[in-house]
């Protein structure tokens, strides 16, 4: 399931995760978000950027429990909880937000 | 894995020990072992990690893998704390016979003697070695 | 003609480097690659064997494998030469044949 952004083809796996993280761009994130039916606002970007920073530091996409805890630590308890994150990304913050952020599927998600 | 509730697993808690014995890039054991630890960390068990023999090479500082075209997964060990894996031990004898000290490692660890590691192994319910 | 030996196993896990040293003649060369580069570390339980033959055998190690494993150049056995991939090719060309110790 590849994406086309600015006339360029970006390779992705059958679930829509891009295969090469270096091909990610803000425009691509917008395109992936559209296919996920997510209207990206500042709050969405905050989580996506958080995930990209997490990946940069640890080289993995965090499990949802770990993401929630890390968001809580860095952005506060009103954002670091499942309810808030699932409202932004209804099909799962780790799965959907990771996909938009260009990360691999979180380790431990089936 | 995507629990809506932030609930905790409430089954019996067992003591799990993961023993890392292999160097990081020559075989796939180290990376696979790390993934298993990250996956099972979600189940709220009493987990500890031990680095012995060539396993100590997994957490050597300053790894730079661009030249061999493989993923450098040494930064991922630093994520273990966020996964609540906080008991990490290194065998003193393995570290010293390779000419290393605690300062050469990417994560804070507790250094134990072979005898102390054996005692710890005896106290586990499950031991998985990679 | 002299042989180029390559060793790709950690000396702490398998005794391949010892086997290789036992059968390698003076004048030959040993190139450490992959996990074999751990044998290049100075001051380990495995380094004596190499330093004993250093000089009569030329020792090389593959630089990208050294860097990948976070080993610094100054922690390596003295007299050992680092080569890159094209240096590996040059060695293969220079010696009469290659013996890969697997």
Would you kindly provide a written description of the structure presented here, covering whatever features stand out?
Helix content of chain A is 49%, strand content 5%. Chain A contains five helices and two strands, in the order E-E-H-H-H-H-H. Chain B has a single domain, classed as DsrEFH-like (Hypothetical Protein Ychn, Chain: A, 3-Layer(aba) Sandwich), CATH 3.40.1260.10. Mean pLDDT of chain B is 91; it is low at 1-6. Chain B has helices at 29-40, 92-97, 114-122, and strands at residues 15-20, 46-51, 87-91, 110-112, 126-129. In chain B, 21% of the residues lie in helices and 18% in strands. In chain B, helix 2 (92-97) links the parallel strand 3 (87-91) and strand 4. Chain C contains four helices and five strands; from the N terminus they run E-H-E-H-E-H-E-H-E. The radius of gyration of chain C is 12 Å and the shape is globular. Chains in contact: A-B, B-C. The B-C interface holds B 22-27, 53-54, 57, 60-68, 70, 72, 74, 97-99 and C 8-10, 12-13, 34-35, 38, 41-45, 47, 63-65, 67-72, 75, 84.
Oligomer category: heterotrimer
The structural class of chain C is: alpha/beta
Shape, principal axes of CA atoms of chain C: globular
What is the CA–CA distance across the termini of chain A? 18 Å
- Uncertain segments of chain A are none
Number of spatially distinct domains of chain C: 1
* Strand line-up in the sheet with most strands of chain C: 4-3-2-1-5
Overall pLDDT confidence of chain A: 92
Which sequence of SSEs, written as H and E, runs from N to C of chain C? EHEHEHEHE
What is the CATH topology descriptor of chain A? Arc Repressor Mutant, subunit A
Order of helices and strands of chain A: EEHHHHH
Percentage of residues in strands of chain A: 5-15%
| Number of beta-strand segments of chain A | 2
Report helical residue fraction of chain C.
25-40%
């Amino acid at each position: 399931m590849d994406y086309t952004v600015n006339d360029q083809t970006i390779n992705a796996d059958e679930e829509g995760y891009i295969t090469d993280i270096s091909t990610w761009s803000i425009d691509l994130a917008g395109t992936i978000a559209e296919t996920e039916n997510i209207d990206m606002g500042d709050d969405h970007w905050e989580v996506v950027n958080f995930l990209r920073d997490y990946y940069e530091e640890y080289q993995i996409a965090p499990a949802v429990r770990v993401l929630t805890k890390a968001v809580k630590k860095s952005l506060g308890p009103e954002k670091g909880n499942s309810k808030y994150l699932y409202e932004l990304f209804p099909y799962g913050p780790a799965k959907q937000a990771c996909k938009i952020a260009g990360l691999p599927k979180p380790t431990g998600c089936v | 894995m995507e629990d809506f509730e932030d609930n905790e697993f409430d089954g019996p808690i067992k003591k799990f020990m993961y023993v890392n014995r292999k160097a990081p890039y020559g075989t796939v054991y180290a990376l696979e072992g790390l993934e298993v630890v990250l996956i099972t960390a979600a189940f709220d068990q009493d987990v500890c990690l031990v680095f012995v023999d060539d396993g100590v090479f997994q957490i050597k500082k300053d790894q730079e893998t661009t030249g061999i075209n493989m993923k450098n997964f040494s930064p991922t060990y630093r994520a273990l704390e966020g996964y609540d894996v906080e008991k990490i031990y290194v065998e003193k004898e393995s570290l010293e016979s390779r000419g290393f000290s605690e300062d050469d490692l990417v994560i804070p660890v507790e250094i134990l003697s072979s005898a102390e590691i054996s005692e710890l192994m005896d106290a586990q319910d499950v031991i998985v070695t990679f | 003609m002299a042989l180029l030996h390559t060793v790709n196993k950690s000396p702490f896990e398998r005794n391949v480097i010892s086997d290789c040293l036992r059968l390698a003649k003076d004048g030959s060369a040993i190139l450490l690659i992959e996990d074999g580069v751990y044998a290049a570390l100075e001051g380990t339980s495995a380094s004596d064997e190499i330093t004993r033959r250093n000089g009569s055998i030329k020792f090389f190690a593959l630089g990208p494998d050294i860097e990948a494993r976070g080993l610094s150049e100054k922690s390596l056995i003295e007299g050992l030469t680092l080569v890159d991939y094209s240096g590996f090719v040059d060695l293969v060309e220079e010696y009469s044949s290659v013996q890969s110790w697997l």
